[in-house]
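Pasting as-is:
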Amino acid sequence: MPWDDPLVDERGHDPRSAYVERYWLGVIGPTATLIMRRFADEFDREPEGFVIDLAHTATTMGLSFTRGEHSPFGKALHRCVMFGLAQPTADGYQVRRMFPNVAQRHLSRLPDDVQQAHYDWARRTIRLDRRDLEQRLVELGVDPRAAARASEAAALAS
């Protein structure tokens, strides 16, 4: 099933994008990245959710599959969960259709040149509109006073 997150869905990055390849690949690994790309392809065909044969999918990727986290495919799927790209449910998984920006704690593990490239990208592309941020926080259920303080702090930090 899709993992609905209005903010990430609107401002995030397609799993097949250059951003994900450049900045997320080194964080979650190539197999987890490929799994998320496969899921994105499925969401293109079935936006409301789909059933996928994990063993078949693993085999088409050249991986073995056993239930749990013991096979290479299972480990990669678990990395998707660990990094907040998927979450288990009673009858499967909820999966993000879009990736959020890479968190600083993950970026700090990447090579210096990749960290600098991400910083340069963020400086060029992220424009903080304080009123827009405040409104979005309120829409997500944050108390209006807290949203105002948070947007002010974010504006001062940018």
